[in-house]
């Protein structure tokens, strides 16, 4: 989006503000579907956790996507957005059997990643098909926090537990309709997907009633100019050919599924903040914005890089700044950033603000979470109102301290 458009939107809706570009979301969706055009049945299930605003979900529904959900509330959001239950896959981790049963009752596809839960679920509901999340034991992903397919990870059923898995399936007479993996986020090397696919195919051979194989997600997107990204086109060509060969030996055209979050929405997002103060110290110049890790936690949580530019003064002289927030904690968004000269009141834009940004926001310091705007059809649509004090207080229950304390009675 152009600076002028973003500034106009910031003027109209205030700051801090998340703005998402629907065209960018659509072009990423189309890029992925084109890369896998050689596969007969392809399903992209958008990972709701990345950005869960109901208007974003409806946009994906219009594009023909399904959704990947990880909580019963995300399932409910998907249903509220108009997805049919069979367009929703529910991939929880560490939730109760009770929650899985609730999701199954709603008719969504169930993905189980734990043998104990699988045995209990299969015993009680042998007629509900389930997908199995495999842990293929591969080390993948941008950093330890987002690597989830290795041997020490809590996610998935180990490939070494397949004999036990088969015993449970046979004993309960349950039916397995899918095999799934998700090994991490920010995976640059396509060989990770190709290597892990062999493990999934090997596992898949054990099940006769499969409908789909889900390769999860984890595609890396560029964060700054010149940054490298996962080569989606090469992955599409190579994985499609392996998948088609597997379907031929399996004797059925299965669906190839992915569940991308970051790839679809990261670059569509722009986070707009206003500079409250410019503070010169003995060691740096701080630009202090009207936000903090309550609104965008990725830099502090994962060390993620978000490019920051000054859209109020794009052609000013460049200087070095430390961009920080207004939270009573160290909340540094970026150190030693070369940014065009910043004055108080300027609007700074953070790039790659679509995935895991608003969805990880909180009310820490009792601050309001930002508003959200979708730029769609050449128009800015407010898709989440700015919070008010009522949002901070409305679930809080006050104790009446005016009453005299009663003496504790002897037991
Ligand atoms: C099970 C599962 N699927 C899909 C995703 C989406 O991954 P990404 O945003 O890297 O595409 C995640 C992210 O954590 C996940 O846990």
TrEMBL record:
Record key words, sorted: Amino-acid biosynthesis, Decarboxylase, Lyase, Lysine biosynthesis, Pyridoxal phosphate
Active site, UniProt feature: 328
Catalytic activity line of the entry: meso-2,6-diaminopimelate + H(+) = L-lysine + CO2
A GO biological process held by the record: lysine biosynthetic process via diaminopimelate
List of residues binding pyridoxal 5'-phosphate: 218, 356
Cofactor list: pyridoxal 5'-phosphate
Entry binding sites for substrate: 298, 302, 329, 356
Signal peptide: none
UniProt-listed Enzyme Commission number(s): 4.1.1.20
Keyword Magnesium: no
Alphabetized Pfam families for the sequence: Orn_Arg_deC_N, Orn_DAP_Arg_deC
Keyword Iron: no
Domain Orn/DAP/Arg decarboxylase 2 N-terminal: 23-266
Domain Orn/DAP/Arg decarboxylase 2 C-terminal: 18-354
Any one GO molecular-function label of the UniProt entry: pyridoxal phosphate binding
Family the entry assigns: Belongs to the Orn/Lys/Arg decarboxylase class-II family. LysA subfamily.
Annotated function: Specifically catalyzes the decarboxylation of meso-diaminopimelate (meso-DAP) to L-lysine.
NCBIfam families referenced in this protein's UniProt entry, alphabetically: lysA
Subunit structure: Homodimer.
Protein name (database record): Diaminopimelate decarboxylase
């Amino acid at each position: 989006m152009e600076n002028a458009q973003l500034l106009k939107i910031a003027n109209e809706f205030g700051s801090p503000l998340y703005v998402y570009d629907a065209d960018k979301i659509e072009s990423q969706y189309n890029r992925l579907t084109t890369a896998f055009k050689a596969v007969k049945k392809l399903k992209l299930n958008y990972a709701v956790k990345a950005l869960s605003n109901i208007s974003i979900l409806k946009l994906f529904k219009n594009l023909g996507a399904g959704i990947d959900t990880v909580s019963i509330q995300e399932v409910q959001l998907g249903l509220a957005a108009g997805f049919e239950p069979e367009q929703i896959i529910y991939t929880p981790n560490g939730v109760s059997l009770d929650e899985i049963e609730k999701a199954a009752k709603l008719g969504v596809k169930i993905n189980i990643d734990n043998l104990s839960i699988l045995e209990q679920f299969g015993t009680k509901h042998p007629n509900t098909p389930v997908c199995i999340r495999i842990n293929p034991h591969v080390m993948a992903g941008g950093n330890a926090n987002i690597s989830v397919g290795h041997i020490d990870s809590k996610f998935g059923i180990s490939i070494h537990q397949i004999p036990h898995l088969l015993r449970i399936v046979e004993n309960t007479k349950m039916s397995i309709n899918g095999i799934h993996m998700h090994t991490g986020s920010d995976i640059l090397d396509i060989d990770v997907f190709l290597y892990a696919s062999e493990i999934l195919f090997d596992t898949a051979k054990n099940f006769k009633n499969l409908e789909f194989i889900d390769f999860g997600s984890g595609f890396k997107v560029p964060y700054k100019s010149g940054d490298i990204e996962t080569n989606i086109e090469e992955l599409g060509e190579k994985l499609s050919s392996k998948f088609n060969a597997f379907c031929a030996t399996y004797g059925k055209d299965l669906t190839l599924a992915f569940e991308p979050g970051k790839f679809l929405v990261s670059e569509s997002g722009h986070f707009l903040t206003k500079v409250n103060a410019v503070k010169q110290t003995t060691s740096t110049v701080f630009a202090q914005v009207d936000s903090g890790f309550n609104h965008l936690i990725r830099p502090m949580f994962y060390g993620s890089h978000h490019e920051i530019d000054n859209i109020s003064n794009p052609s000013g002289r460049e200087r070095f700044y430390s961009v920080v927030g207004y939270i009573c904690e160290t909340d540094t968004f970026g150190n030693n950033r070369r940014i065009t000269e910043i004055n108080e009141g300027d609007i700074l834009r953070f790039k790659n603000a679509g995935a895991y940004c608003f969805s990880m926001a909180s009310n820490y310091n009792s601050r309001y979470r930002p508003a959200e705007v979708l730029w769609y059809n050449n128009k800015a649509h407010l898709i989440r109102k700015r919070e008010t004090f009522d949002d901070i207080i409305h679930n809080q229950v006050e104790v009446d301290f005016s009453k005299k304390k009663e003496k504790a009675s002897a037991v």
